[in-house]
Amino acid sequence: MLQVRGLKVSFRSEHGLVRAVDDVSFDVGEREILGVVGESGSGKTISLLSVMGLINDPNAVIEGSIVYNGRELLGLPQRELRHVRGKEIAMIFQDPMTALTPVYTIGWQIAEQVLTHNDVSKQAARARAVELLTAVGIPNPDVSVDRYPHQLSGGMRQRAVIAMALSCNPSLLIADEPTTALDVTVQAQILELIQKLRRDFGSAVVLITHDMGVVAEVADRVQVMYAGRIVERGAKRDIFKGPRHPYTWGLLDSIPPLDGPRPHRLKSIAGMPPSLLALPKGCAFGPRCRYRFEKCGEQPRLAGSGGHDSACFLSPETRAAAWSGRLLDSKAVS
């Protein structure tokens, strides 16, 4: 359904060209849920905003290829992109307060998208808005349809944004941190809605998140990003059972265990993500990696087997030992 090849997104600045996404390639198949994970600033959202054609900064430089159902989207005129956006590809934005216009009711905003992409009456569009609000679990939808965003809770606003994204039954849904700042109960309901979209409409979903627990719940495949690059990708089972990149180990270590002894404190990844203005030479994760050795001064290539790829120079034996907890001394890799 979606094929992204060699995507590069850069921004001109007073300090020179800043590359936010560097040579990213991935596919999304029909009815598939792809989880894209990584810390803030890793390039997750920028990559998918490029797919939507929503990077309008005049200083942006976008290179590569984005093919949706056999049609090249990169370089497509905005008029033609509008026919794709919202109808065939929809996006749930991260912050529902900024995604919704405060001076219009949520029903008007949902109906507007329905009217834009479908030849229906205003009454039918309003009825569709009520139907969608019912589907996403908003109470009293006949009343809520005429409410403004500030009259709804955070969870209700997020549901309204999801309703808007689902209004035209898109074949591809991009969900950017759809469960951020929501309580656990509402998170579970939102994830169920995403799975329901695939069941009922056969849609594919790209789920952008930093929460590995959310990925474990709904994703089929996982793509781990760091400093604008993909550092690991594979089937969910492979990523969680046998991760191959030290950054992925750090993300998984940060999940509280559900069984066994209770840790005194959760593990964290040392250091901070690098500045895109001054990326380290070679592996971008190198300065934070306890397994760094001389070879890491070169840029690792994303490679692997069986659909499980990683960008790391560690040997398979060292990776297996490190993940199992038997490798305690990072000097052993040298």
Mean pLDDT, nearest integer?
Answer: 88
- Beta-strand percentage? 15-25%
Tell me how many strands there are.
12
**End-to-end separation:** 43 Å
Helix content: 25-40%
Derived from helix and strand composition plus strand pairing, the structural class reads alpha/beta
Global shape: globular
Number of helices: 12
Write up what this structure looks like:
Helix 4 runs parallel beside helix 7 and helix 5 crosses helix 7. The chain is globular, with a radius of gyration of 21 Å. The N and C termini lie far apart (43 Å). Helices cover 33% and strands 22% of the residues. It has 12 helices and 12 strands. By secondary structure, the protein is α/β, with parallel strands linked by helices.
Please outline the helices and strands.
Blueprint: E1 2-13, E2 16-28, E3 33-37, H1 44-52, E4 60-68, E5 71-72, H2 78-84, E6 89-92, H3 96-99, H4 106-117, H5 122-135, H6 141-144, H7 154-166, E7 172-176, H8 184-201, E8 204-209, H9 212-218, E9 221-226, E10 229-235, H10 236-241, H11 246-253, E11 303-305, E12 308-310, H12 316-324
Parallel strand pairs: 3-8, 3-9, 6-7, 7-8
Antiparallel strand pairs: 1-2, 1-4, 4-5, 9-10, 10-12, 11-12
Helix pairs in contact: 4-5, 4-7, 5-7
Give a short overview.
The protein has 334 residues and is an alpha/beta fold. The chain has helices at residues 44-52, 78-84, 96-99, 106-117, 122-135, 141-144, 154-166, 184-201, 212-218, 236-241, 246-253, 316-324, and strands at 2-13, 16-28, 33-37, 60-68, 71-72, 89-92, 172-176, 204-209, 221-226, 229-235, 303-305, 308-310. α4 packs across α5 (122-135), α4 (106-117) runs parallel beside α7 and α5 (122-135) packs across α7.
